Recover the amino acids of this structure.
């Protein structure tokens, strides 16, 4: 299919979708098929379009596994433009925006990531990656909201202190009580913010672990299984990847990797480098998590008597 025909088809999908302003749904596959035929495309050309969309998603996934969100974003956008129902299309689009938001902090990227993740969940309510992204973004927003509220409370306390300062001795006594209440409120907001920061980082680690496990699954398709030990460990790792025990997954992968020869093909080396990159990102995030837990625990030790609902957190190494 020529690029001109492809672009005409994409433009037609966009135009038809935007024409129905009362609905947020994409065209169904049947509607897209009818649209393609009305434009003179053959059944074979339509199937080629669906395959092309899937390949865009696969390319996007490879870019995103390397944290290359710019190229990953372009590929994901191309995928859903051709076929809004393509598997993992909107999920990949959400991850691309999520990675860019984490890196650059642009609010529009947060909104785009949330929108794409919600679209992904509408199409597949078991899309765990999209669910994790929605959860991480939601927790961050709550933390920011609490921070904003804390600033308002502190500013209000300062204004109140200045106003009360001009009255007599009795008013000064009332001021002390008021400041004590405001101080407790501000401290609670600090504790909430610190706790939400911990929760947000934990969710980011979960998203990164899911990505690493997906890389392992792809790796198993090309990984060596020449010896009986390699075959056995490969089967055990495949079984562990169907579960949720991350410690066992990492352990079995380490055992399996230790059986590899020194010289490996370029394809296998590339997969191992991508997995190692994901492990490095997780290690960095765990370091950030340890700092966040420390900050939270310090606040709990200082102000826990006034706010018993907050408890110390254990340092996690899983």
């Amino acid at each position: 299919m020529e690029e001109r025909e492809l672009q005409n088809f994409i433009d037609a999908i966009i135009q038809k979708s935007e024409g129905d302003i009362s609905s947020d749904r994409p065209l169904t596959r049947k509607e897209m098929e009818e649209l393609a035929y009305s434009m003179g495309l053959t059944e074979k050309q339509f199937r080629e379009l669906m395959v092309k969309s899937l390949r865009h998603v696969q390319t996007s996934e490879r870019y995103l596994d390397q944290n290359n969100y710019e190229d990953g974003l372009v590929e994901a956008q191309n995928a859903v433009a051709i076929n809004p129902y393509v598997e993992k299309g909107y999920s990949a689009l959400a991850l691309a925006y999520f990675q860019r938001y984490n890196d650059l902090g642009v609010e529009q990227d947060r909104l785009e990531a949330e929108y794409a993740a919600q679209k992904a969940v509408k199409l597949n309510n078991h899309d765990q990656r999209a669910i994790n992204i929605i959860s991480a973004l939601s927790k961050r927003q709550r933390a920011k909201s609490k921070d904003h509220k804390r600033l308002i409370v502190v500013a209000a306390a300062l204004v109140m202190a200045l106003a009360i300062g001009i009255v007599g001795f009795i008013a000064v006594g009332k001021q002390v009580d008021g400041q004590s209440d405001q101080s407790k409120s501000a401290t609670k907001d600090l504790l909430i913010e610190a706790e939400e920061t911990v929760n947000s980082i934990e969710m980011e680690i979960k998203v990164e672990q899911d990505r690493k496990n997906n890389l392992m699954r792809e790796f198993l398709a090309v990984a060596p299984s020449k010896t009986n030990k390699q075959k056995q460990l490969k089967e055990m790792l495949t079984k562990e990847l169907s579960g949720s025990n991350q410690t066992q997954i990492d352990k079995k992968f380490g055992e399996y990797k230790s059986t590899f020869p020194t010289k490996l093909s370029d394809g296998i080396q590339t997969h191992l480098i991508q997995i190692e990159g994901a492990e490095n990102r997780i290690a960095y995030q765990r370091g950030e998590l340890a700092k966040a837990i420390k900050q939270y625990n310090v606040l709990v030790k200082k102000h826990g008597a006034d706010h018993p609902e907050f408890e110390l957190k254990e340092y996690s190494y899983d």
User: Anything to note?
Assistant: Residues 18-23, 166-172 have pLDDT under 50 and may be disordered. Residues 171 and 208 are 55 Å apart (CA to CA). Residues 169-220 form the longest helix (52 residues).
